[in-house]
Amino acid sequence: MEIPSLDVQLKTLPDSPGVYQYFDKNGKILYVGKAKNLKKRVTSYFTKRHDSHRIGVMVKKIHEIRHIVVSSETDALLLENNLIKKLQPRFNVMLKDDKTYPWICIKNERFPRVFPTRRLVKDGSEYYGPFTSFKTVNTLLDLIKGLYKLRTCNYDLAEDKIRENKFKVCLEYHLGNCMGPCEGYQGEAEYNRNIDHIRQIVKGNFKDSLSQFREQMQEHAVNMEFEDAQRIKNKIEVLENYQSRSTVVNPKINNVDVFSVISDEGYGYVNFLQLMHGSIIRSHTIEMKKKLDETDEELLELGITEIRQRFNSKSPEIYVPFKVDAGDEVKVTVPKLGDKRKIVELSERNAKYYRQERFKQMKIVDPDRHVNRVMAQMKEDLRLSVEPRHIECFDNSNIQGTNPVAACVVFKNGKPSKKDYRKFNIKTVEGPNDFASMEEVVYRRYKRLLNEGEELPQLIIVDGGKGQLGSGVKALETLGLRGKIAIVGIAKRLEELFYPGDPIPLYLDKRSETLKIIQQLRDEAHRFGITFHRNKRSKSALNTELESIKGIGEKTVVELLKSFRSLKRIKEASEKSLADVVGSAKAKIVYDYYHSESSD
């Protein structure tokens, strides 16, 4: 697939947190960065003047921009760390060493210790994190130590050594910080129960622990120990804002490929995430053109084979959103809950964003293809015999039957054609009768198009339910156009689409482009109609009062409004200022009319 220009790539970036990667024309990685808003951050590289020569050189070399969308800025920070260490980009100067963010380790040993570390050792120990701040780690460990008395020594507390009294309790025992398992004062079962509780805390399930903290804070406050109360309050705030685990990293997920697929009527988009040692080390999405109306299952199976061959992946297990056949040598897992499910959802999110970007790019570099795709989709969704290249939508506007008007807006190839918009004054209907008004304007619109030999639309939309739709159908029947032009009604409440003769409405997917275009038509017709109605009502209100003055005609009304701008200013004007505009005789009539009224 040809890489779009940098300008197109920038315009189609999402406004989401994530990690971006810059590549040169040879496909070599230049830089990895994180962003709270990918579009704003990446665009800034190309719009700002750079003081650093290094960044200026890098920007000149950028040929392709790739990105991975994640759930939060914290996830972006952690993923950036992993990718920099894995890919070692030329222009990244930080995070290339073997240091990493802190973890909490539950050591794989009898009577496990719990401590912070920056290094992961593959000895069977449990690592939770990583954390973006040591402040969070220390707060968690303070919470744990306050609730559970754990050993801090590094003795090998084997059962036979304890039985032979090889160790003596230390100062921590006498200070009340340890229960003395080294001398057998605490059993292994009790100690391990505490470790199970600690696992829940570091996973983020510390509701009970927070309740205890709040009780302690209240006790300190009651005892007027406000400094201690504030210290505990600070810890509560850190814990409440703490994000325990990242969807990006989990040390238990190792050597796994993650695949997902999103498709539409013409293409499928398969995303691939590669995980090693709990970290994402690669993300890639491919676009696949449908040839035989393939299902998502078939597209995903083809995509898995293609991507694993392209990247020479040997991972023994894959995570997918539904069951697929990937061969006998690969274990296929369909996660339902937990971190495994979250990583599949992350893959799906990246596939969706990729599809949206391709649509945006298509609009810019190949607008005809985009229009053709949307029109084909509308034809299928609305069960039409032809593509609705020309659509017209009608809406009535009146307030308690006053100044009834109607509007017709026109969309061609899915876009407003404002030069074809039309306004209608209702001529044959008395009072607030939307059904009769709709019949009148639909009849007048297409009677004129027929008389003038103009092009007729492929689709008519009326704003309203079955009643307005029936009126529109009746007008078409009178003109002999019933069955020659498709017509539907849209009800506002549930966005229901009604068809002539069908009592059951059609409900479109709320996210579908077809519904969005129909809603845009309906909203534009309402806006256009209500603006016309307000202008007419306002003009009518002004003219009616001034023209009711005996001896004042339309020409005088226009002159007064042109000069004074409002009825209020005319009422408040002096007789002399009125005379300067319309002459002394008419000025006296207007002045006496308002001032004699106010004196009654």
UniProtKB/TrEMBL annotation:
Q: Coiled-coil stretches, from where to where?
A: none
Which SMART domains does this one have? GIYc
User: Which SUPFAM superfamilies does the protein's record reference?
Assistant: C-terminal UvrC-binding domain of UvrB (SSF46600), GIY-YIG endonuclease (SSF82771), RuvA domain 2-like (SSF47781)
Q: Where in the cell is it found?
A: Cytoplasm
Which residues constitute the signal peptide according to the record? none
Q: What's one GO BP annotation on this UniProt entry?
A: SOS response
User: UvrC family homology region profile domain: which residues?
Assistant: 275-471
Q: Name one GO cellular component term.
A: cytoplasm
Domain GIY-YIG stretches: 15-93
Instruction: Provide the primary localization.
Output: cytoplasm
Keyword annotations of the record: Cytoplasm, DNA damage, DNA excision, DNA repair, Excision nuclease, SOS response
Ranges where the UVR domain occurs: 207-242
What PROSITE patterns does its record include?
GIY_YIG, UVR, UVRC
Query: What GO molecular function annotation could you give as one example from this UniProt entry?
Result: DNA binding
The record's listing under CDD domains reads: GIY-YIG_UvrC_Cho
For this protein, the record's Gene3D superfamilies field holds:
5' to 3' exonuclease, C-terminal subdomain, GIY-YIG endonuclease, UvrC, RNAse H endonuclease domain
Q: What does this protein do?
A: The UvrABC repair system catalyzes the recognition and processing of DNA lesions. UvrC both incises the 5' and 3' sides of the lesion. The N-terminal half is responsible for the 3' incision and the C-terminal half is responsible for the 5' incision.
Q: What's this protein's family per the entry?
A: Belongs to the UvrC family.
The entry describes its oligomerization and partners as: Interacts with UvrB in an incision complex.
Name of the protein in question: UvrABC system protein C
